[in-house]
Amino acid sequence: MSPLAHLFALPVRAYRLIGSPWVGHGCRFQPTCSAYALEALQRHGAFRGGWLTLRRIARCHPWGGQGFDPVPQCGSDCDDEEKHRD
């Protein structure tokens, strides 16, 4: 994960530590938005991962979707090491 992606992940980690226990476990999606955010930042970096995270959070409302929504795989913008990472 790039240094900027680590910086973007700090609020997500803080939310998981402090805010998540107060909100409860009523997430509409699997994986949860915070897990999705950390995986997107790790897999795609700060900018694309941040954009994917914002899109996911915007879909999390009463009229939005639900169910299994994984982080998309790397496309042509990822280098070879990221494409083959498990």
Automatic annotation (TrEMBL):
<dbReference type="InterPro" id="IPR002696">
    <property type="entry name" value="Membr_insert_effic_factor_YidD"/>
</dbReference>
<feature type="region of interest" description="Disordered">
    <location>
        <begin position="65"/>
        <end position="86"/>
    </location>
</feature>
<comment type="function">
    <text>Could be involved in insertion of integral membrane proteins into the membrane.</text>
</comment>
<comment type="similarity">
    <text>Belongs to the UPF0161 family.</text>
</comment>
<protein>
    <recommendedName>
        <fullName>Putative membrane protein insertion efficiency factor</fullName>
    </recommendedName>
</protein>
<keyword id="KW-1003">Cell membrane</keyword>
<dbReference type="Pfam" id="PF01809">
    <property type="entry name" value="YidD"/>
</dbReference>
<keyword id="KW-0472">Membrane</keyword>
<dbReference type="GO" id="GO:0005886">
    <property type="term" value="C:plasma membrane"/>
</dbReference>
